[in-house]
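Please fill in the sequence for the structure shown.

STRUCTURE ENCODING:
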């Protein structure tokens, strides 16, 4: 069985290539999971799919399928002890399983390309909250505010100059964090930022729970109408669970290669999943009472409008508008940056290991093309709006390619590898090489072999119908 930290010419790992503390390890992994998908896609999906019924299915999917798939990715990373390609190579030398890891590297890089843009929008909104210009319009009716904030979105997101500048700023910030390496960069940053994120979320929960129609909002979110559970709702909930837990992106494989040998994988994955769900649920507790209280329900909460139009409308009606706005965009930025860092790390670790380069050289090589690619993506709503791939602009094309095809394929490949391709890996990793008693291996293996692949194939098919 390949051991960790084996140093050969292909896998020159620096000394700090392990997380130092358990808390840091959890903070980094939860930091990756809690991103824009958890904070903003989740409430939007919940609203579109009937509220509490969706929440229920989402929680079930996260525990029954998300946890086992996460455990399989952790097993590959810690068992292989390398990046997402190297881990497969070490565990199955001479076999083509590493292709799954290679798809993960490409997918994560492509996600990085467009996620930088969204990070950039968040930065712009933070900036305009600080200067106060976001609230200059002074509209007082809902319709007036609607057009005011749609106008702002147009100005900050859909014009050529500002989005490119803020996208580049995000690339530089992420590069700076990544340059610190695993312990001094990723772990330290996550350990500082994740508690901040939780505190900010609690503050927002306190505010929205004191709003006049908090009860109605919570009812929509928490009292399930079981008749709303349709096959589409289940498939959407499953897709959301996979995305919000960062499955199929190579992130969990890469981060697990930094886990110490005594990390308990089952406990870690349950903790990460629970904390991610708590954040998602807190976000629902923030959004739905606010949306009910301010009569914003008919807008729908879809995509970008939720954070860039609906929420500013809420803040505009709260006392202390600017403060809440600043705090919210700080929260969003924290969520975005901890996820961006994790997604870039997949390619960075792969290139660093494969080429034996220094961290600095690796990051320059990886991030330099992003200046061009992400900027082009930032322009896909303005200057490059006419550049279409299969009818989609650049941003949408990358989003669709990665989410609909590549991520499910990687997640599926990971399950097949652990379930069928690498006998003994799961048991070894769950028991930390025989030193822990495990009662769950049988049931987890059953899910990883049969149930999870069937569910992922269903998502793949339904995404492409
Ligand atoms: N779980 C993350 C999210 O909710 C997924 C992700 C991670 C996306 C890293 C992009 C980058 O946003």
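FILLED IN BY: designer on duty
SEQUENCE:
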């Amino acid at each position: 069985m390949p051991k960790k930290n084996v140093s050969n010419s292909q896998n020159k790992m620096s000394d700090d290539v392990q997380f130092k503390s358990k808390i840091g390890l959890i903070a980094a992994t939860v930091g990756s999971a809690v991103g824009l998908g958890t904070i903003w896609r989740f409430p939007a999906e919940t609203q579109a799919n009937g509220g509490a019924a969706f929440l229920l299915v989402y929680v079930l999917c996260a525990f029954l399928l998300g946890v086992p798939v996460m455990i399989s990715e952790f097993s590959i990373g810690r068992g292989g002890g390398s990046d997402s390609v190297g881990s497969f190579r070490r565990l199955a030398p001479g076999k083509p399983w590493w292709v799954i890891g290679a798809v993960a590297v490409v997918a994560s890089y492509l996600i990085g390309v467009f996620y930088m843009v969204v990070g950039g929008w968040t930065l712009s909104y933070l900036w305009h909250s600080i200067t106060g210009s976001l609230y200059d319009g002074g509209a007082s009716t809902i319709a007036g505010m609607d057009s005011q904030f749609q106008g702002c979105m147009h100005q900050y997101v859909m014009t050529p100059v500002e989005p490119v500048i803020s996208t580049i700023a995000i690339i530089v910030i992420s590069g700076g964090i990544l340059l610190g390496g695993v312990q001094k960069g990723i772990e330290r940053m996550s350990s500082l930022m994740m508690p901040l994120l939780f505190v900010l979320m609690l503050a927002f929960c306190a505010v929205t729970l004191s709003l006049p129609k908090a009860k109605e909002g919570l009812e929509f979110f928490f009292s399930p109408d079981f008749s709303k559970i349709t096959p589409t709702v289940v498939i959407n909930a499953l897709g959301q669970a996979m995305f919000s837990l960062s499955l199929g992106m190579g992130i969990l494989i890469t981060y697990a290669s930094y886990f110490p040998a005594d990390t308990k994988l089952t406990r870690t994955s349950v903790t990460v999943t629970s904390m991610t769900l708590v954040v998602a649920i807190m976000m629902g507790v923030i959004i739905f009472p606010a949306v009910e209280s301010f009569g914003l329900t008919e807008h729908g909460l879809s995509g970008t409008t939720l954070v860039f139009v609906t929420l500013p409308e809420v803040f505009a009606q709260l006392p202390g508008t600017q403060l809440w706005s600043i705090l919210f965009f700080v929260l969003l930025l924290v969520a975005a940056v901890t996820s961006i860092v994790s997604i870039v790390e997949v390619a960075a670790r792969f290139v660093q290991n494969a080429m034996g380069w220094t961290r600095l050289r690796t990051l320059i090589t990886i991030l330099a093309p992003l200046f061009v690619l992400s900027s082009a993506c930032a322009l896909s709503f303005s200057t490059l709006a006419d550049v279409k791939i299969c009818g989609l602009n650049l941003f949408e094309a990358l989003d669709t390619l990665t989410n609909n095809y590549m991520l499910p394929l990687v997640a599926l490949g990971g399950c097949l590898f652990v379930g069928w391709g690498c006998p003994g890996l799961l048991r070894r990793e769950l028991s930390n090489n025989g030193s822990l008693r495990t009662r769950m291996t049988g049931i987890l293996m059953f899910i990883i072999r049969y149930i999870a692949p069937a569910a992922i194939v269903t998502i793949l098919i339904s995404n492409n119908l």
